[in-house]
Amino acid sequence: MSPNIQPTSHQTVGDDEIDLAQLGSTLWFYKWRIGFFTALCTCIGVIYALTSTPIYQADAMLEITGTKNQVLGELSDLIGGTQTTPTDTEIELIKSRLILGKSVNDLGLDLVIKPVEHRWDKLLSQSDVQPELTIGEFHVDVLSLNKPFKLIALGEREYKIITPDEQTYTGIVGKHLQLGNQNTRIIVNKMVAPFGQEFTITRFTQLAAIERVRKNLSVAAKGKNVPILGLSMTGTDPIAIQNTLNRIIANYTEHNRNKDVQTATSGLKFINEELPVLEDKLRDAENQLNVYRSRSGSLDVPSEARGTLESLNKIEMQMVDLRTEKSALSEVYTNEHPAFKALEEKMKVLEQAKLRLNTSISKMPQTQQEIIRLTRDVEINQAIYVQLLNKRQELSILSASSQGNVRLIDSAMTAEKPIKPKKAIIVALASILGLFVSAGYYLLKSLLKKGISSEEEISALGLDVLSTIPLSEVQYKRDTMFRKIRKNKNARANSLLVIQDPTDPSIEALRALRTNLHFRSMGQDNKVVLISGATPEVGKSFVSANLAVLMAQAGRKVLLIDGDMRKGYLHTLLGQPEKVAGFADVLQLNKLPKQFNEFIQKTAIDGLEFMGIGSNTPKNPSELLLNNHLSQFLDWANHHYDHVILDTPPVLVVTDAAVMAQYAGTALLISRFGQTDVRELDHCISRFAVNNVNIDGVILNGVERTAKNYYGYYDKYAKYGAKS
User: Fold this and answer.
1) Going by DSSP bridges, is the β-strand pair 643-647/528-533 parallel, antiparallel, or unpaired?
2) Which domains can be identified in the chain, with CATH numbers?
3) From the centroid of its chain, how far is CA 363?
4) Where on the phi/psi map is residue 174: left (φ > 0), alpha (ψ -120 to 50), or beta?
5) pLDDT band at 524, cuts 50/70/90?
6) How far apart are CA 157 and CA 137, in angstroms?
7) Residue 277: which H helix or E strand, with range?
8) Ramachandran bin of 219, using left for φ above 0, alpha for ψ from -120 to 50, beta for the remaining angles
9) Which pLDDT band holds residue 250 (cuts at 50, 70, 90)?
10) What is the mean pLDDT of residues 486-506?
């Protein structure tokens, strides 16, 4: 046996640094899988790009001029304090229900007809004819608004309709079709579609239709303080979005122009009503002034009162302007509008100024007061009369020729190429996504895999690696199928790989192990080979059974003992009965016999005999190992067999293996590739050391082809087995 190996926990601390070279090897090893997944994602991206519905965009441009005209500019002062119309206001006006609602009604956008297109149909279809459906009339009840009706072509002129409540009706092109109640009916004027072509027909409420248009409409200023608006609309029909955008622009410019005309007309109406009244007032004022002058002999206003009179005249003129503006605004805004409130505030200020001037005049002599009053009436009425005449002329011209403050720069036009999908970008992103996801997956898998993956990791503990056994694909598939049949994830195949496939690479590796053990055991009196593992499911029973068969096939007399009295299943692999006298029965005997043949079973393999777990296994088998029956029995086996293979429970689960190992000539540990951790092996060393037992070697089982062993020992047996 090898020198005593002490626990080497300090050696098991993993290197936390990332090995870039190893990551590169991992990528290179999985290059074909990464390439396949990348190509798959690229194909998906190509299919998506080719079958996605193209989205087009129509663009237009408007200029918002700063001043409409002098008269309306004065009215604008009341509303915004500036003669320039804010672009933000115009943007909101364009997107308002007032403008969009009229556009929806003008173009019938509340009725939406869509052919149903499937991605594969678009990809495989060779027809250039686009499905077409024209509806002459479509009325639905309130409950069916905003819900799609499905129309399916049954022939050149026949179709069927499926309502939202799954009712089916058949109709003929050109004829009315009643759909349930009297409020729901349709007439199809034209249908160009192959048999089975589906359409969806939806009648939206006006509000829903407006929201659909608004969702696809974009309005924005071309820059800060730049009075130019850019309008764009997106959609799947290039002609429809162009017509819709042009209609929105037409309705907006018409509204803008009509608002000016309406304002001018209201102001003109007010002036025409005021002029006759004002003309009478002017005539009366002149007569009164002439009569007073003749009676009093006063011909003119004193120079000291002239300034006061001129101030009164200006105030009266401003008040007339405000009344004119108020009349014009009343046709556009309500009394609660900020414009009205601002106008009323100005009127109050002028009234207060007028009151102060009148108070000043009242302090003058009676003669001066009277001449000032009469002169003021004449001058004010005369000035107002002239001013109203001028404004009437201006408003008359405006009413007849107003073009508003909006100028169309570019009418709506749709670009020839769709803006979406960006096919090249989609394909590129799909390829990049496939590359990074697949590469990232394998890199992460490599980084997270903490199990042993090389002989060097075991050697670092001071242990010898006696053999590396590649994963048998045949055994793996057989176990997988067996689990599915038994519906038990722990079930394993009930046959030996060495019998079913003697040229399997894993069997070739076991042959090499057999040779190794043969030479190691030469000269040893103790022929017992104990095989265990750190944890369950590492393949110790697989190694024990197949190794025993290989030794027997080499002409040796072999005894295989199932020492796992809890979960042993070697009897299943060898086709032996379970509940027969065996290992547990021997350990429970009061007195050991000279021969143990009654506890040993013959097998179908020449030279191989088997001792099962026994017919009477206790709940705590470890207690059976405390007497000397085990040593006496193994001593007997040493003298009657060339090799004794003892399969034991996992070391870290129960203490059985560490106790049995005291009576073995060779103690082997099975470590599972990618599963057994280095720390687990270190703990096994500690367990065995407590019982003064040496671990003579480790078998690395289930080795898979990975980046770490790509050019290593995996292919050694695989290539050999392929040639056999």
Assistant:
1) parallel
2) 9-52+421-447 (no CATH), 56-235 (no CATH), 260-411 (no CATH), 451-471+503-723 (3.40.50.300)
3) 84
4) left
5) confident
6) 17
7) helix 238-296
8) beta
9) very high
10) 78
